[in-house]
């Protein structure tokens, strides 16, 4: 039996691991390294170069070297466009509104670039375990990745020749790596500070079950920002010492940032370090060198505000989970940037406890994915992984309302069905608009996709029963179907057009919904009143047609006036709630009179009918 390997496909670095004994272990790549930079150089002709070599080539061949492609994988162009200024590559719109990466001027799908990284990790695993010994892979993604981003990640795996058994959330994987999920109940905070992104997740862990309760983060905050701060200081010093302003020079910038990163990493273990950059720039007087000493204290001073931002995210994740810092039992440090002593110190202060650092922070996510791989492959403990939907999912209904089918924070995998009907007679098709969000009106939420259920048989309004079923699988991928019960007609969609949703965006949308809650509730109430008026009017009109002459002239006049009042109100602008209630009341009074007439007419017919009952 082969193995199911675990892969942390990171923005900056990727790692592959396996559980083939008692504990999961990291597998080294062809260069003997445990961590592989997620960087790919696509030579004009010839094989792609991946990892540390590609990263070094970035200096020489920047136009064909792609880093941080995870930032755009599975996104729509419109979502990625605002990031464009911060991306280390140019992007183009695909025919279907997605994103391609421009390598020179050639458009390449992000999945293809990620596939090169995954293929290298697959080779590393095969070299370590034996060819043919890799049966499948578990790949991790950030908890806030939406459906489209997960599907694109899965596609990247398939392109790399991996059988992707499951996509799991990075914080969940981290918890598994720390050995959680098999014995006791606890509440866990996973603090993940990587190269380009930061996120924090609050998990509920109990034996066999791990649930993501909330997540918050900043996708524009990572170790790169620390490097940039140090690099800026170095370039300022260069300007002061030589009068040469190299801040706009890309090649110099890259060399200085690399030196800054090395210094930062050294300062994790030593209190001061020397930075030397010979022949950095030159002017008429000859080449200029940069030489300086950087202390840990100085570095901490430079990046205090960056660390403050991570702590603010912790506050918001706790708020969303409805917990206080003191209620967290374990704090796990994940991601290379948590090695910075200041970061660990601030986290300890905030949570009031020492974070757990027993697992290497760069490797924890891959190790946890390997644990899950072993479970799926029938090895190791039975840990079931449960995650939650970050936002509610539902459909647009009459009057532009958002009707939830799956509530926010529901544990996945899950499915739910709600039954809807038509609003007008002989409606032959219904359009299903699938939305995600927390607002009461459809237009304030995010449209994930739409499809039509057509070919309905002619039926009176409200007669058809249409079951709309939402299901979210263990990978967080959403499918929606609509079935008309009498004919069995079905239409369905798998959501591939879902737009990018960042942890900070989820938090923003939820906060926005909270702020708007009162106004939203009022508007929803109003639309529901209006819908009730319309439904009552249509029902009364249909009843009048059915009963025909059974309705007396007086009642008919009464009913017609109520209908006219309703029509006038429905034809115009939305009015106040009380007016809708009055008009509905008038329709109901008329309907009661109509039913009295119907009963009277039936009794008369029975009395007149031959053989009928006699009084
Ligand atoms: P990602 O999850 O974003 O792919 P990682 O978790 O591998 O990234 O984190 C990469 C970041 O960690 C880089 O910015 C790197 O400079 C930083 N890093 C790695 N080791 C150290 C260290 N010893 N001290 C400080 N930062 C470090
Ligand atoms: Mg990571």
Number of discrete helical segments:
13
Termini Cα gap: 86 Å
Total tally of structural domains: 4
Specify the biggest β-sheet.
6 strands, mixed
Taken as a percent bin, the fraction of beta residues is 25-35%
Give the overall shape, derived from the CA principal axes.
Answer: elongated
What small molecules does this complex bind? adenosine-5'-diphosphate, magnesium ion
CATH-level-2 architecture of the largest domain = 2-Layer Sandwich
CATH homologous superfamily heading of the largest domain: ATPase, nucleotide binding domain
Average pLDDT across residues? Answer: 88
Topology, number of strands: 29
- Enumerate the spans where pLDDT stays under 50 for 5 or more consecutive residues: 496-501, 611-615
- Which structural class do the helices and strands define? alpha+beta
CATH class of the largest domain: Alpha Beta
**Percent helix among the residues?**
25-40%
CATH topology name of the largest domain, in short, is Nucleotidyltransferase, domain 5
How large, in whole angstroms, is the Cα Rg?
31 Å
Structure, described:
The chain is an alpha+beta fold and 615 residues long. The protein folds into 4 domains: 3-215 and 311-377, Nucleotidyltransferase, domain 5 (2-Layer Sandwich); 223-303, Actin, Chain A, domain 4, CATH 3.90.640.10; 393-501, Substrate Binding Domain Of DNAk, Chain A, domain 1, CATH 2.60.34.10; 506-605, Substrate Binding Domain Of Dnak, Chain:A, Domain 2 (Up-down Bundle), CATH 1.20.1270.10. The protein is 39% helix and 27% strand. The strands form 8 sheets. Strands 1, 2, 3, 4, 11 and 12 form a 6-stranded mixed β-sheet that branches. A 5-stranded mixed β-sheet has the order 18-13-14-15-19, sandwiched between helices. Strands 22-21-25-26 form a 4-stranded antiparallel β-sheet. β14 (198-206) and β15 (209-218) form a beta hairpin. The protein is elongated and about 115 Å long. The structure holds adenosine-5'-diphosphate and magnesium ion.
